[in-house]
Amino acid sequence: AQKITQTQPGMFVQEKEAVTLDCTYDTSDQSYGLFWYKQPSSGEMIFLIYQGSYDEQNATEGRYSLNFQKARKSANLVISASQLGDSAMYFCAMFLGRYSSASKIIFGSGTRLSIRP
Amino acid sequence: AAGVIQSPRHLIKEKRETATLKCYPIPRHDTVYWYQQGPGQDPQFLISFYEKMQSDKGSIPDRFSAQQFSDYHSELNMSSLELGDSALYFCASSLSGSNYGYTFGSGTRLTVV
Question: Which chain A residues contact residue B58 at CB under 8 A?
């Protein structure tokens, strides 16, 4: 069965430090996509970064990078130089299939990140 | 850039009432998804539509129904509301054939009292 596991319910990090949020996934499919979303206290779901299972290079988007280790089935999010505004809930998510056509996303349980000034 | 628009942002209903949530996908996106996120929970998939046809169904109660219209907007209808239906309801849209592009709306927060 497909599953996303986030083992860190909460994390505290000092401002300007780098932080790694863990995510492991389980699927027998060869084609899949992995997302990270940020959900601040206001509730909206903000897309951060995407990694396709066939992508050979790790995805990067500004201060966000995805450490994709396919053999270990892990897709950790790395935030460099954390900022106070990074405090939020972070969800790792996966869809199955090479294309997103009508493919639902499954979510992990989330990690609440708190940045200390 | 245009995003996924959901309305209303907040909704308060009494038990046993009916609620209708609306979702306007990103222009040219042909697939719409609905998710329910209870307090302190991760979002759970409810239902999806591709080209106005239901394409997948998740843990959606029989009291709920949804459809996608000719202009691709979608509505989630919820009847006989229960206290446990209080949640954040997200709509997302994507374009088939693209390998990413899942975009969520800001959600509708439904409170049943």
Answer: 104
